[in-house]
Design goal:
2 copies of one chain form a homodimer.
Chain A lengths: L14 H16 L6 E2 L11 H14 L15 H12 L11 E4 L2 H7 L10 E5 L3 H9 L6 E2 L4 E2 L3 E4 L17 E5 L11 H14 L2 E5 L25 E6 L1 H4 L7 E4 L5 E2 L2 E2 H12 L5 H8 L4 H27 L4 E3 L5 E5 L6 H12 L1 E2 L1 E2 L10 E5 L4 H12 L2
Parallel strand pairs in A: 1-15, 3-6, 3-7, 7-8, 8-9
Antiparallel strand pairs in A: 2-10, 4-5, 9-10, 11-12, 13-14, 14-17, 16-17
Helix pairs in contact in A: 2-9, 4-5, 10-12
Chain lengths: 404, 404
């Protein structure tokens, strides 16, 4: 009899967003006249910018004609896009990369989920707590979770590194040595980040201890402060210990268009094996490239006009971030993030639990957010608000929260 | 120190297509005046059809406007597409499916490569020989290969089921019981297929022995004969033992546009676990949906006009298949496939090895094909030609081969 991968059964249900959905539906049904505003979603709402649209239409036209039609894409992605990435996203920050160290994919979620495949099951992982659930879940699927401890909301074999107001949301170096360290800065869900000097400490640690860092930089476009690194490769020696994952989802609104990329430098070695070669093999065997049309679409983010257009969208969201942050701070709430990130992480007032505050906000202010406990045990007592709504709704929501 | 997945190191280099590329380049460099025709590629060459182009443009326009912009796609894919698939690809064949048994993906290669993730490492797999390399390689990556035996060109733990002219390319039931059986009909590389009755034997076997069948139906659009099943679910009881993988690559020219889907019926159980739920979990955790634009593009294949247009492209390729098959048969070659498939599988003449025949064809006829031995030990002595060229070049190539 065939056998399933039993590790999948260790995963608890994805309770968070389904529970939010149920509660919101129930409230709306009971109160059909109320105008419920969501600051809960992590999805963008502004359309693709004109330059991207132009490139997409152009690529569709190419696919309609035999002479310009494109079949299977190159394994690593089109060279024009890999060149544009290096030239625009890395060289201006002083980071030199070879073309074959950049792997185009269908998005950062796939890459963060799949990257574990090229490492031995026999590795110990470390994640920040709270954390984007994909890092943990995908490792559990691969057999690195141990057992789930429901009363603690954590897996026995995973090293959780608390990120709370007490340590300014900068994880401390772990006491037990992890083999694989997941870092995401600017962070989802806390919206906070770390300076280049603070990240250098992690790079030095990883090199010293022989760990590999999976650096999720999906939110780098939201960075406004000078001392915050856009790429981990701005840190000395990072190419020897780090993989970086990027996305077009949040900077260019590609959440439904799907494109991202991963950098695996050749200097990242395990013994005499280039980790890059394993990722290349996985890419060539279990993936067949992102659509030509979409890869061309991304080229629209690199033209002078396109850069201006995506910047305007980010600025639009960041005005919401300021509205939320400032409004709540002025009203006496403890708020974090929102400066280099579209996410605002707030302390729940009066020692309310994350879910109690969720219920209060929904029922009394008709505003939907995300309970911090859904992202890990140390998210308890916190709450996430996002900047992806309209200016008008965001202002209205904050006014309502302040009046609570 | 972090550890890599050592299984990756067991994979031999992907020798086949790189060796072909090298030989062709060397020949062209030495003979710049020669007109070399390739009947080697498995990639389509005709452009996307007008109905698909129209849908793609329409979807791009929707993405440009806030009111119709689409962010994250539903985990399983858009319902409009899953409904269209059931209505057009399955109901006409008498196969009823629920909407949540169909999972939209970025292509059949990803799905065939990833499907192994939801099964235990402790399963024995069986493949036909010759075989599409992804089935074996992805299982080796997951630890199911055992060790590679270079002199035999096979992995120690994989059950290979020979498909040769002697058994009419229909694999015999294996002597050792496999847990997971990969079947691809119409077959890549042999271009042959099996009847519904013959497939029923496999379904019955799988149910009896507790095996699961991964049925790759990527080439079903090329079927011309009535007794050849388009879906494994045409066989009785198949929903209890089979997963089916489909692609838009070869029927609608989506090799560079990337879309496919996988059917996991709820009846497929392992103990009290629905295998479907594991695939849903993987889909939701390690994948974030195919682009909205591309899912809309696929809708163009289901309009009356779109169906006609993709049928014309398939007919175009199938005329090449007839040209190759008939031309070579008339000249006394033993040829297989090409009736329900764009692939023609020929016996090399005069006991030449696959590579010897490759060299002869390249040097004397200036035609490029694919040596059968590249697909597995029992591909030795065979050679693959494909129908994806132009009518003119295909005719010219066959004339040259006949004159050899």
């Amino acid at each position: 009899m065939f056998k399933i991968n039993e590790n999948y059964l260790k995963l608890p249900g994805s309770y968070l967003f389904s529970m939010i959905g149920k509660k919101v539906s129930a409230y709306k049904e009971a109160n059909p006249d109320r105008d419920v505003i969501s600051l809960g979603i992590g999805d963008v709402t502004l359309p693709l910018v004109p330059e991207v649209i132009k490139k997409l239409h152009g690529a569709v036209d190419e696919m309609a004609v035999k002479e310009t039609f494109r079949g299977y894409t190159p394994d690593l992605g089109y060279q024009f896009l890999r060149d544009a990435i290096i030239e625009n996203d890395f060289l201006p920050r002083g980071v030199q990369l070879d073309n074959d160290e950049v792997f185009i994919s269908d998005g950062a979620k796939s890459d963060t989920g799949n990257i574990g495949d090229i490492f031995s099951v026999d590795n110990r992982i470390a994640v920040t707590d709270p954390v984007y659930p994909v890092y943990v879940d995908s490792n559990v699927m691969n057999g690195r979770g141990g057992i789930y401890l429901p009363d603690q909301g954590r897996f026995s074999d995973v090293i959780y590194m608390p990120c709370t107001a007490e340590n300014n949301f900068v994880p401390e170096l772990p006491k037990e040595r992890p083999d694989i360290i997941y870092l995401c800065f600017p962070n989802n869900p806390t919206g906070t980040t770390i300076t280049k000097d603070q990240l250098q400490v992690w790079v030095d640690y990883a090199r010293r201890e022989g760990s590999v860092i999976i650096f999720d930089a999906a939110y780098e476009a939201y960075i406004t402060e000078d001392d915050v690194p856009h790429s981990i490769y701005e840190c000395e020696g990072a190419k020897e210990c780090a993989i970086e994952i990027r996305s077009y989802s949040k900077n260019a609104g590609f959440t439904g268009t799907r494109l991202g990329f991963t950098v695996v430098p050749k200097q990242l070695m395990c013994g005499d094996v280039h980790v890059r070669d394993l990722w290349a093999r996985r890419h060539g065997t279990k993936f067949n490239g992102a659509p030509y049309i979409v890869q061309m679409g991304a080229m629209g983010t690199y033209t002078p006009e396109g850069k201006k257009q995506i910047r305007e969208e980010i600025d639009y969201y960041m005005e919401n971030a300021r509205t939320i942050r400032q409004g709540l701070a002025d009203a006496g709430y403890a708020v974090y993030g929102g400066v280099n990130s579209p996410y605002i992480w707030m302390k729940t007032p009066k020692d309310l639990s994350s879910w109690e505050f969720f219920d209060l906000l929904l029922n009394k202010a008709n505003v939907v957010g995300t309970p911090g406990s859904g992202f890990g045990p140390h998210g308890e007592g916190y709450f996430r608000l996002t900047s992806f709504g309209t200016h008008e709704n965001t202002k209205k929501a904050i006014e309502r929260i302040i009046k609570l």
